[in-house]
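User: Can you predict the 3D structure for this chain?
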Amino acid sequence: MNTPNLDAMALHGVILNRHYTQPLCSPSRTALLTGDYPLRHGMQSTPCLAGVDDGLPPAVKIMPQYFSKLGYKSHLVGKWHQGYETPEQQPTRRGFDSFFGYLNGYLGYWDCTHYTNGVAGRDLRRNEEGAWRECYGNYLTELLTNEAVKVIRDHPEPDGLLLLLTHAAVHTTFMDIEREAPNGVQNTTGRGYLRAMIERLDWSVGEVVKALNERGLLNNTILVFIADNGAPTHASSFTNHGSNWPLRGEKGSVHDGGVRTVAAVWSPLLQNLSRISDQYFHISDWLPTLYAAAGGKSEELESKDGINQWDSLRSSTQSARDTIIINVDEETKTEAVIKNNWKLVKHNNPKLMGINDDYYYGESGRWMKYDAEKVNTSAVAQILGPIPDQYQMLKESASLNSPCPNETSAMAEDCHTDYCLFDILNDPTECYNLAANNSQIVADLKAIIDSYRPSLLPVSPKYFDSRANPKNWNDYWSPWIK
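Assistant: Here is the predicted structure, written as structure tokens:
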């Protein structure tokens, strides 16, 4: 993939090589916004579905509500996906000063329409009003980017700015991928269409960095780029031709292919830039980390699981985290935990959305040539400077080039009824199950998981409420419980 702007940002900043999320999108967003593992809020299982009475409870405080106390203006551009059955659950009633985006998990890139269970509805809003007409004739990635740039340009000083640009790209929809690619792309493969969509996402990064620079905000800004889960490489309903190779699993899986994600951070406030961080970082850590960077005090946060990693991130000292609860999901009987170099996994293989937890999917990308000239001429490099001399070392250090040599045997391991144990520092592809010879380690890790069970809020029953049908709400997906 040609991502020169992202590459320039990452190579000038810090690549988070062991950044972990939740297996699916709504749970990851819950962790990001609350600083908690989603299990505390009943958000640990399947994503929020259109017309279903679930979502992050309104009483739970989230990121913009904390940042407002520090004098920040907060804006959400893009995906919400935290529930909206009541008006109180909308982003503008959860601390965001403005919202331009969509409420559900995905929508058409050219028509801003969300389809689910055979029901279609418009899903683009400006604050709490329908804004579907703004979508007409515009490509979604560009539409959201232009809004983010406008937010930056209109931002009043000296207020702080918290901007969450949560792109649809490159989430799949129920349309064929060639229908969702940018204009001018044709006669290619599914992977080729995905490449074109990613290139527009990369363009977006360049536009945001340019806007911050032109506004004079870049010298006191922290830029974070993360994915919320692994690519859906195989699932029949959500295949988007992505690749997690050589990691095992895909979106929805607690194997690293589903939860070890792309992540990078850049800021002039960071020391020792242009480096790889192999320290554990969980998506729940961003709230306390960024809050501390903005001058907030950790005791002001109600979050229980996120760890303030600002000092270790800023000065490349030892990470404050050595344990990550990947998930404890009572609905799918799936759970996983990481402690130091060990990872314990058990999943029920529910074939959720057609996902298969076990397999290795996706192309290696080894055939692609890294285009240093494109990186150096990118919008971001024009601002941050030429890529550092050590870029080749950084690029190679951040890459995994050792596939599981024993895939057939690895996939035959039964992680459904028994726990599997992996040494993920030495076996990042989760190829060798070491549980049989390490029963005490298995018991110790299981005890960590068990210690979180009393904090688990069970997942709510999920059924489609006919009152939510968009035909009842001017063809928009809207809050339906008043």
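The chain has a mean pLDDT of 92. Residues 187 and 266 are 37 Å apart (CA to CA).
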